[in-house]
Amino acid sequence: MARPIRFNAFDMNCVGHQSPGLWAHPRDKSWKYKDLDYWQDLARTLERGVFDGIFIADVIGYYDVYKGSNYHAIHQAAQLPVNDPLQLAAPIALATEHLGIGITASTSFEHPYTFARRLATADHHSKGRVGWNIVTSYLESGARNVGQGGLRRHDDRYEVAAEYVEVLYKLLEGSWEEGAVVRDGKKRIFTHPEKVHEIGHKGRYFEVPGYGLTEPSPQRTPVLYQAGASGPGKAFAAAHAECIFVAAPTKSVLKAYVSDIRQRIAAAGRDPKKVYIYTLVTVITDETEEKAHKKFEEYRSYVSYDGSLTFMSGWSGIDFGQYAPADVVEKIETNAIHSFVEHIAGGDKSWTIEELAQFGGIGGMGPVFVGSPERIADILQEWVDDTDVDGFNLAYAVTPDSFEDIVAHIVPELQRRGAYPTAYRPGTLREKLFGEGPYLPKTHPADGYRDIEAVKRREAEAVPALKSVGA
Fold first, then answer.
1. Which of 30, 117, 272, 286 has the CB geometry, 3.0–4.6 Å to 262, for a possible disulfide?
2. What is residue 16's predicted lDDT score, i.e. its pLDDT?
């Protein structure tokens, strides 16, 4: 088999996730996001296509940067209304046997103690097929609505995230020993108390003295996804992520990113080939080139100019509504997604506002590939060969049609070429992805928190030393 290409489906518990305006297309069913049968049917389709998983994005807040208002976000359903993603894990797990379920949750808006329980519960219910997409969030509206006044500075949010995952590792990896739960009816012992430990965490942002609330789930810590592409984001991903998502508008941008992040992973003491990198793309295909391009033009007729710039303004933190369509995008320092600003204002292409709106109208920040199955397969293999990326995070133009087209046309073509899996590995999501054990490997930072009593001793010894330095 050639190097296998990997697919994730990129979706969100909302209407018109990355393609503003296409909710109005007569075949689009994203308005059924409220219905569990919609998600279960989609999940079955993806499993037939041997997708690694469905990756469910999320935002807390709403897009109110464009023209200083959330009017267009509401008017064009630009990720509003939006439902909670974690509640989709159980119904998707019930409908499938193998499909991974990646859930986005922010380190900025929920306490790690309660989130650890919710995450472990989902891992139990799915028999170990859950992943967590770690985000720090970028919408000021979200921070305001949970009483924070506004977002912390971009780099500070990653400091919070680093402590957040430390708390989760302590709770999920160290609080309950292997063999703590025995369910011994004869001896009337369900759990050995001496094998359940308080974590005693007292950090800069969180204080969590007690026990984890859940017994160890099949993966203990679910598979860790991360999409940071700024300097702090890449440093965090290199240290913690098992799967990394990137939105690169061009092949050259993607190649530079992949090379950089793999070097950072190696410098962190981890195997860069055992971290998968997926890039965001949208594929529009049909039986022939002519049919595919006709479909693309049909889709383009539904794109919302204001909806597209609503997204672009929210992601960048720049109000593109203040510029004329022919104006060129310039780099402005913001507190939103730094990598987005770098790509559109500091990359190898100059963008006008109108070009930006057209680019983002279908599929968001990733490129759109249009063509026959043979043509799309050529493009995907070319991108993998030229950039060293592992796979693709596939956004939709129209759902579920976009995903059904890929499963019907692209997957069989890649399989004929020996460039795509034909079956899943057994086991948990981590085992299916990497072919090793269900837990994070010893080269991962989580390994340092598995002996929680030793962790507490180290931390207690470090406190006097810090006080001495301060004195």
1. 272
2. 84
> Which residues lie closer than 8 Å to 286 by C-beta, 6 or more apart?
292, 294, 295, 372, 405, 409
H/E run at residue 311: helix 305-316
pLDDT of residue 331: 63
Instruction: Give tens-digit pLDDT for 29-44.
Output: 999 999 999 999 999 9
Q: Hey, how many other C-beta atoms are within 10 angstroms of the C-beta on 453?
A: 12
Amino acid at 391: G
**Three-state DSSP state, 31:** helix
Query: Could you give the CA distance from residue 383 to residue 242 in angstroms, rounded to a whole number?
Result: 21
Return the higher-pLDDT residue of 378 and 62: 378
pLDDT digits (tens, 9 = 90+) for 69-105: 999 999 999 999 999 999 999 999 999 999 999 999 9
**What letter does residue 196 receive in the DSSP assignment?**
B
- The residue with tokens 């995907």 is 380
With pLDDT > 70 as the criterion, what percentage of the chain qualifies? 93
- Residue 294 to residues 232, 287, 371, Cα–Cα distance (Å): 42, 12, 10
Contact present, 351 and 328 (Cβ < 8 Å): yes
Q: What are residue 195's phi and psi, to 5 degrees?
A: -105, 10
Residue 371 has pLDDT above 80, yes or no: yes
> What is the C-alpha separation between 118 and 103, in angstroms, rounded?
11
> What amino acid is encoded at 225 in this protein?
Y
CA 396 → CA 17, 36, 87, 301, 339, distances in Å? 8, 19, 21, 16, 22
Tokens (6 digits) for 376: 């799309």
Q: CB neighbours of 111 closer than 8 A, spacing ≥ 6? A: 206
Q: Where are the alpha helices (DSSP H) in 70-192?
A: 71-75, 89-95, 112-125, 140-145, 154-169
Who contacts 116 (Cβ-Cβ below 8 Å, separation ≥6)?
167, 168, 171, 172, 212, 213, 214
Distances (CA, A) of 292 to 100, 119, 177, 284, 317: 29, 40, 54, 6, 34
pLDDT of 341: 56
Tens digit of each residue's pLDDT (9 = 90 or more) over 332-363: 655 544 455 565 655 566 788 898 898 889 99
Closest CA to 285 of 409, 466, 156: 409
pLDDT tens digits for range 50-76:
999 999 999 988 889 999 999 999 999
Give the up-direction half-sphere exposure of residue 413: CA atoms within 13 A in the CB hemisphere: 20
